[in-house]
Automatic annotation (TrEMBL):
Native source organism of the sequence: Thermobifida fusca (strain YX)
CDD domains per UniProt: PKCI_related
Membrane-crossing residue ranges in chain numbering: none
Lineage: Bacteria, Bacillati, Actinomycetota, Actinomycetes, Streptosporangiales
InterPro entries xref list: Histidine_triad_HIT, HIT-like, HIT-like_sf
The name this protein goes by in its record: HIT domain-containing protein
Annotated ranges, domain HIT: 9-118
Length: 118
């Protein structure tokens, strides 16, 4: 496991130092509404431990990305978007649009999501 970073916004949310609209909490994950939603449902799912991106979380080999995917399914059901469909997005690196370097999946749904995404 990795430590929490004092300069990381998402680590501060995990620690309760920064408020967030929490949707669901698990032992290893926390999910909250995005402050700049791009769809009617836009929830961020993050691990409580700090990993800078999806690649580092996956390389840890501890099933964390599987857990994030399970949480996404549970949240989609609770939000009423599981049957109509939803999208999970992981931006990895600045060129992909990652601005907070704590791995996080964007759960998006509640409207049509065209392809390609942009």
């Amino acid at each position: 496991m990795t430590d929490r970073r004092s300069d990381c916004l998402f680590c501060k949310i995990v620690a309760g130092e920064v408020p967030a609209d929490i949707v669901r909490e698990g032992e290893r994950t926390i999910a909250f509404r995005d402050i700049n939603p791009q769809a009617p449902t836009h929830v961020l799912i993050i691990p409580r431990d700090h990993y800078p991106d999806m690649a580092s979380a996956g390389a840890a080999g501890i099933g964390l990305l599987d857990e994030i995917a399970r949480e996404a399914g549970e949240i989609a059901r609770a939000e009423g978007i599981a049957d109509s469909g939803y999208r999970m997005v992981f931006n990895t690196g600045p060129g992909a649009g990652q601005t907070i370097f704590h791995v996080h999946g964007h759960l998006l749904g509640g409207r049509g999501l065209e392809w390609p995404p942009g």
